[in-house]
Write a structure and sequence with these properties.
The protein is built from one helix and eleven strands. By secondary structure, it is mainly beta.
């Protein structure tokens, strides 16, 4: 026998297909460190997110680096697998690339070839660029590592085939 609730019959596949997963929000935690430009240094959050500053990378007048796990999730037009992280001072351009490491909680069989670090564009231009990324296994999933040359926001997410915010033509003034 079966009972009826008066609701139309549903397929077990429909709810999973209809569910839209929200991009994760961060904890709001902030880490700040004074970096000696002659030796470089690292700033790390408790979740393992780090920024490594090599010797000689800092521009004149910059010696304090900040990393924040943003409570604001990535924009809905991107599919994030980690929170957005804010790196400061915002807009800083470096003399050498810095290494950013973002932990990802994911099953061991996750296909990391579909993932990348997405880094916001300089000068507050809209959108995020896909940055070359390497992945290493960790105790909770993976660690994504990329190099960046300016500070703004970044997160790990799915690669896109069509840029939701295409860059302006660099030849137009």
């Amino acid at each position: 026998t079966s009972s009826s609730s008066g609701a139309p019959p549903s397929s077990s596949a429909t709810p999973a297909q209809a569910t839209v997963k929200a991009n994760p929000a961060g904890s709001g935690e902030t880490a700040t460190a004074t970096i000696d430009n002659e030796t470089g240094g690292t700033v790390a959050l408790s979740d393992g997110t780090t920024i490594e500053v090599p010797a000689g990378a800092l521009p004149p007048g910059v010696d304090t680096i900040t990393v924040t796990s943003s409570p604001e999730p990535a924009p809905a037009e991107y599919e994030a697998v980690a929170p957005v992280f804010q790196f400061g001072p915002d807009g800083t351009v470096f003399a050498k690339p810095l290494k950013v490491t973002i932990p990802i909680t994911a099953p061991a069989d996750t296909d990391t070839s579909t993932l990348t670090v997405l880094w916001s564009r300089p000068s507050n231009a809209p959108g995020f660029d896909m940055v070359p990324t390497t992945f290493a296994p960790s105790s909770t999933g993976f660690v994504a590592t990329s190099e960046v040359t300016h500070f703004s926001k970044g997160f790990c997410g799915k690669k896109y085939s069509v840029d939701p915010h295409p860059s302006a033509d660099p030849y137009q003034k």
